[in-house]
């Protein structure tokens, strides 16, 4: 008899365990991590997590979770959420289309048609017009300062307007009133540094601006034209920081990453390409090269 | 003052009175003939070979209207549908061909059962990128690639494939729908058979066939004609993975894709980005001006979900819709004639109230049958006959009186009644 009772208890316990809710990270934005079995890992879309996991949501982030492949709920405020406390969110809401229909028809029949005078808040909520005052050309912050020693590399920007022509101007560091080089770019939003290297000298720094043709920009970005010798020093220093048994592709990838971090973008591109060529089966090298191309309009 | 017992005896009397309003003239010859005249009018007006709706704003605005759409936008239908665990949507964003190659190879490494690209390739681009993608297509034997089925010839009955740039592809399937871009995407034609009996398979049909033979068999049987799409899920009810997510996955995440259907397509939740977006019954606005609401890949996903779950929409045949309209018209006509003859002063008020209440009831009935039994009943004709019945009574009265004078036609209408 006792054995039977024990068996029933075991079955009940097993039943309770199996009744635990299962969760899946459905989507997220911002910085979200999951702590499971005391191990913290970055959130991944589609990842299944247990009811004992804790989801950490940082400021500005949000995560949507699916419970038992049915109910969805979202954490949009910063904080740590233990999923076992959200079991009630796993219940799928039961609603009747017929009841909603009656409510909808009644709401519509009793709703006042309204007028601009009676509800200004609702009626004055249209966009009205485009706004001005912000620069109409946007330059990625990664291009704020470019260190350049040679090679082909584009300076690019984005426009908030449907403009076809843009002014690109280059100034010396001590004179921003008269550009030393000015050109109109048609039907694209980039210019290769190679196209004006004859106007600049190694060892000097310059300012550049991009704007819609005829408009002025006060956002001056920096271009440092580094001498070959100076760049070689940087390059050798970075090379010497590698591990003892570093494969050539690994070294190229590391160099590329560090050069990008140091704003040597043209040179970083050459190293990313080298890494992807040396080990073409490495998905990380290929994807990084692709992302780099996309980020800096290298097509 | 009435005695308390009178209250009880009043109730059956009241019921009987309402009942009489409808049934008193139900079997009169005039009711039956007036009903017939309503349908004759509809037939005659419908046979005029001119598009009179061109200046009719109501007709124009209701052209693509279906009252069942209200159930998605206002009544919460499909809100609690669980996500489809058989389908994963991978957003291709603005990836070039090299990126696509990388994306497909990465997904393939997680062993999905089917991969289907809702993308067309219309010609050569960068040779290096083309060769990478071509190699990806060659080595993945579970990959379906989209193309556009076009038509030529005098009667546009000669089909030909467009956008089939890559040769070594496991299977091509057409991704386009046979309708214009500005109408609601309600139907899918799973197969197209041209004049030479050559059969072309749609994108969703190819994906279903590769995933579940049983489901495909039924889909093939149902898909001999146009199929009404049962939209069960919005884009938020499918797992959506983008490039960056995917690149962060390793082998431990393979369960996300393993043995599933992976659909690759362009996804954008920004309402201002309408690239590859279609109007669907799930649009937040079910009437008037709106913007397309669902990316094409999710329309395909809904079709696939419908086939895998075998929850097709049953459509009532046209004759049944007409029969329902006849019965509704007959009942309304009996009620209207009663008021017209016996309480003429209240006729218009009673008719208008009856029209509004009937419209509310029949719209609900349509929505209820659609939601509960996935049965689509077209009640447009029924609503139309209710509206027309009131006007037809005036015509019928004149006609019946004239017939009475000429041929001694027996009628309940008296000369100069109105």
Q: Which features would summarize this protein structure in a list?
A:
heterodimer, A: 299 residues, alpha+beta, Immunoglobulin-like, Serine Threonine Protein Phosphatase 5, Tetratricopeptide repeat, 3 domains, five-stranded mixed beta sheet, four-stranded antiparallel beta sheet, 7 helices, 26% strand, B: 418 residues, alpha/beta, 2 domains, seven-stranded mixed beta sheet, 46% helix, elongated, disordered N terminus
What topology does this entry show?
The complex is a heterodimer of chains A (299) and B (418).
Chain A lengths: L1 H17 L4 E7 L2 E5 L2 E4 L5 E2 L4 E4 L4 E6 L3 E5 L3 E4 L14 H14 L9 H4 L13 E2 L6 E4 L5 E3 L1 E2 L5 E8 L8 E6 L3 E3 L11 E9 L8 E5 L2 H13 L7 H14 L3 H14 L4 H13 L4
Parallel strand pairs in A: 10-17
Antiparallel strand pairs in A: 1-4, 1-6, 2-3, 2-5, 5-8, 6-7, 9-12, 11-15, 13-14, 13-16, 16-17
Helix pairs in contact in A: 5-6, 6-7
Chain B lengths: L3 H20 L5 H19 L9 H5 L8 H4 L13 E5 L5 H12 L5 E4 L9 H13 L3 E10 L5 E5 L8 E4 L12 E2 L2 E3 L5 E3 L1 H9 L1 H10 L4 E2 L10 E3 L1 H5 L13 E5 L11 E2 L15 E2 H14 L4 E2 L2 H25 L1 H30 L1 E2 L3 H28 L11
Parallel strand pairs in B: 1-10, 1-11, 2-3, 2-11, 3-5, 14-15
Antiparallel strand pairs in B: 3-4, 6-9, 7-8, 12-13
Low-confidence stretches of chain B: 1-9
Poorly predicted sequence stretches spanning 5 or more consecutive residues of chain A: none
| Main sheet attributes: strand count, strand direction, barrel closure of chain B | 7 strands, mixed
Order of helices and strands of chain A: HEEEEEEEEHHEEEEEEEEEHHHH
Q: Strand pairing plus helix content of chain B: what structural class? A: alpha/beta
Strand order within the widest sheet of chain A? Answer: 10-17-16-13-14
- First CA to last CA of chain A: what distance? 78 Å
Whole-number radius of gyration of chain A?
A: 29 Å
Helical proportion of chain B?
40-55%
Work out the helix count of chain B.
Answer: 13
Tertiary shape of chain A:
flat
Number of domains of chain A: 3
N-to-C CA distance of chain B: 38 Å
Q: How many DSSP helices of chain A?
A: 7
Structural class of chain A: alpha+beta
Q: How confident is the prediction overall: mean pLDDT of chain A?
A: 83
């Amino acid at each position: 008899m006792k054995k039977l009772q024990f068996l029933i208890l075991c079955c009940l316990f097993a039943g309770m365990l199996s009744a635990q809710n299962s969760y899946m990270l459905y989507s997220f934005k911002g910085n979200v991590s999951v702590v499971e079995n005391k191990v913290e890992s970055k959130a991944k879309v589609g990842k299944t997590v247990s009811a004992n996991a804790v989801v950490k949501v940082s400021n500005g982030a949000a995560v949507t979770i699916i419970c038992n492949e049915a109910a969805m709920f979202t954490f949009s405020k910063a904080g740590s959420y233990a999923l076992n406390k959200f079991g009630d969110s796993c219940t799928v809401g039961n609603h009747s289309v017929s009841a909603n229909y009656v409510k909808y028809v009644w709401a519509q029949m009793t709703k006042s048609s309204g007028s601009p005078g009676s509800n200004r808040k609702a009626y004055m909520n249209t966009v009205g017009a485009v706004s001005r005052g912000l620069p109409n050309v946007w330059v990625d912050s990664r291009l704020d300062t470019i260190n350049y020693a040679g090679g082909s590399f584009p300076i690019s920007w984005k426009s908030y307007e449907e403009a076809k022509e843009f002014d690109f101007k280059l100034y010396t560091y001590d004179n921003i009133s008269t550009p030393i080089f000015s050109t109109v770019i048609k039907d694209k939003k980039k210019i290769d540094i190679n196209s004006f290297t004859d106007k600049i000298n190694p060892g000097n720094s310059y300012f550049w601006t991009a704007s819609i043709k005829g408009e002025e920009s006060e956002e001056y970005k920096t271009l440092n034209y580094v001498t070959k010798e100076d760049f070689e020093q940087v390059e050798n220093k970075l090379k010497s920081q590698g591990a003892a048994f570093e494969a050539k592709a690994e070294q190229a990838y590391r160099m590329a990453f560090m050069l990008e971090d140091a704003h040597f973008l043209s040179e970083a591109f050459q190293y990313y390409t080298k890494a992807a060529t040396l080990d073409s089966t490495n998905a990380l090298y290929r994807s990084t090269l692709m992302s780099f191309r996309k980020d800096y309009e290298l097509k | 003052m009435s005695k308390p017992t009178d209250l009880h005896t009043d109730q059956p009397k009241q019921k009987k009175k309402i009942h009489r309003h409808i049934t008193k003239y139900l079997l009169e010859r005039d009711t039956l003939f007036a009903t017939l005249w309503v349908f004759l009018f509809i037939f005659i007006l419908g046979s005029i070979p001119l598009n009179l709706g061109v200046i009719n704003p109501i007709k124009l605005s209701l052209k693509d209207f279906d009252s069942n759409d209200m159930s998605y936008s206002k009544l919460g239908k499909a809100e609690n549908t669980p996500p489809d665990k058989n389908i994963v949507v991978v957003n291709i964003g603005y990836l070039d061909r090299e990126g696509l190659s990388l994306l497909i190879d990465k997904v393939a490494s997680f062993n999905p059962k089917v991969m289907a690209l809702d993308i067309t390739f219309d010609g050569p681009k960068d040779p290096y990128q083309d060769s990478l993608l071509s190699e990806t297509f060659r080595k993945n034997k579970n990959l379906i690639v989209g193309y556009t089925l076009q038509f030529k010839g005098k009667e546009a009955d000669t089909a030909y494939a467009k956008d089939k740039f890559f040769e070594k592809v496991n299977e091509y399937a057409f991704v386009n729908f046979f309708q214009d871009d500005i109408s609601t995407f309600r139907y899918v034609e799973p197969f197209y058979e041209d004049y030479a009996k050559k059969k072309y398979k749609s994108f969703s049909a190819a994906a279903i066939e590769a995933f579940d033979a049983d489901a495909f068999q039924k889909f093939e049987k149902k898909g001999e004609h146009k199929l009404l799409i049962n939209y069960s899920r919005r884009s938020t009810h499918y797992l959506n993975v983008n490039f960056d997510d995917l690149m962060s996955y390793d082998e431990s995440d393979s369960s996300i894709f393993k043995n599933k259907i992976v659909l690759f397509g362009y996804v954008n939740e920004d309402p201002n980005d309408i690239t590859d977006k279609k109007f669907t019954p799930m649009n937040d606005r079910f009437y008037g001006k709106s913007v397309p609401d669902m990316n094409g890949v999710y329309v395909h996903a809904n079709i696939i979900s419908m086939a895998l779950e075998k929850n097709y929409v049953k459509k009532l045949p046209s004759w049944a819709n007409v029969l329902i309209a006849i019965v509704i018209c007959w009942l309304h006509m009996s009620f209207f004639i009663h008021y017209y003859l016996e309480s003429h002063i209240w006729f218009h008020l009673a008719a208008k109230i009856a029209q509004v209440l009937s419209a509310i009831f029949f719209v609900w009935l349509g929505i209820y049958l659609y939601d509960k039994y996935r049965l689509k009943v077209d009640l447009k004709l029924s609503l139309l006959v209710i509206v027309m019945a009131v006007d037809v009574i005036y015509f019928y009265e004149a006609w019946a009186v004239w017939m009475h004078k000429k041929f001694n036609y027996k009628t309940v209408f008296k000369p100069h009644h109105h």
